[in-house]
Design brief:
This protein has helices at 17-33, 49-58, 73-77, and strands at residues 4-10, 38-45, 64-68. The chain contains 3 helices and 3 strands, in the order E-H-E-H-E-H. Helix 2 links the parallel strand 2 and strand 3. The protein has 79 residues and is α/β, with parallel strands linked by helices. Helices cover 41% and strands 25% of the residues. It has a 3-stranded parallel sheet with strand order 1-2-3. The radius of gyration is 12 Å and the shape is globular. Helix 1 (17-33) packs parallel to helix 2.
């Protein structure tokens, strides 16, 4: 049973996606080390190819990666 669902949203961050994923991973690992069950998801809203490749390469630890086509941060978060 998942206690917490955590999301990080990407668009066209390119290289900025690397530190964002590392920070997100640190947060997820800290929560898990504290005994919380957390699902880590990356949402890619209309990503460019570079951002998509970086998330695929650097985000192998993620529980889920979902690509959406909203063009709106609020709609993406509610996916």
């Amino acid at each position: 049973m998942i206690e917490i669902s955590a999301f990080v949203v990407f668009h066209r961050e390119r290289a900025y996606a690397i530190p964002a994923l590392r920070s997100f991973r640190l947060m997820v690992e800290t929560a898990r080390d504290a005994g919380l069950r957390i699902e880590a998801t990356a949402l890619l809203d209309r990503p460019d190819a570079i951002t998509k490749d970086i998330v695929a390469r650097e985000g192998t630890w993620l529980d889920r990666v979902k690509i959406v086509d909203h063009g709106d941060l609020g709609e993406t978060r509610n996916t």
